[in-house]
Amino acid sequence: MKFRKGARHSVPGSLAAGIVAAGLLCLTTTSTMAADKKPVTIALFVAIQSNPVDQQIINTFNKVAKDDGAATVVVFDSNDSVQKEIANCKDALASKKFDAFALRPVAGPPLMRCAEEAIKAGIAVVAIGNALGPNPNTARRQIRGLAASVVQLAKTNGVAVAELVNEACKAKHAGTCKVIYTYGPLGFDWASITRKFFEQTAKEKYPNIQVIAEGANNFNPNEARTLVKSLVQAHPDVDVIANDGDLGAIGAVQGVRDLGKIPGKDILVTGGAINGQGKALIAAGELFGSTCLMPTTEAQTDARYAIMAARHEPIAQPDVEVCQAFAKTGVEPITAANMNDFTTEW
User: What integer is the mean pLDDT of 141-158?
Assistant: First the structure.
């Protein structure tokens, strides 16, 4: 594991040391013969299995389990439904075959009872991705007995999206900067909270930003492409098209091209939760920038913590905000100026 240096919100040495120590402990136990380890079974609850981010998380969990040699992962897909995730939790509890739950909540508060019931039943629980508890804006554990919280805060993403849009408006030399904003499914905390803090931060810090239209891209480039064409035709004077994720931004760039306009010149497009394709578009000048997301690092850390918790091993630093802890760019927007300092993970 590596962690960033010199970026905003520096990581205390104790946190970095604790995370590294946890990784070394896992590597030490991995080097032991699988027969010497307690076999454990982990229930991994994902928010949207068809989403490429969740696919990366699933693949990484499986790899960590394989490397461990005595861990098994069973995936439960919530399909962007809180009720489905609660039902999955009840099924997993009733099966009585799991040593740990790794919960990636669609929404934090409704999944608290699931976590509490699992802990009461002697099942270790770790939170992954979104905060698990009444406060969606903290990486700290909020439930008594929760073994770990390894998250990427949507609030942080929303603030970074607003900062990025402000930079794009400056680059466009727009006085009153007209912005179209597209977002993922609002039933998913990541999308709804990102939107809330994008709008709040823009209003409080960047009054020149005028959001003239919004729409759901549902983390689908094809839907984003169609949506953006419709919105730009209705608002041809738009300066910036902002998106909460790169899947939406990729579709937005295509939509701008379809209209005969030049992304990066006629209209600036911003993304979020950067991926490899988004980074390539930044390098090409068609995407102004994006924000941090590290699903592999998140899943590696959480999977190791879940296995440790299942074996009742201590976790030195259980509260982790991933980009703050591991990214060289920290939680700053990622643009052409600093993109070489960030390695994409999906």
Answer: 97
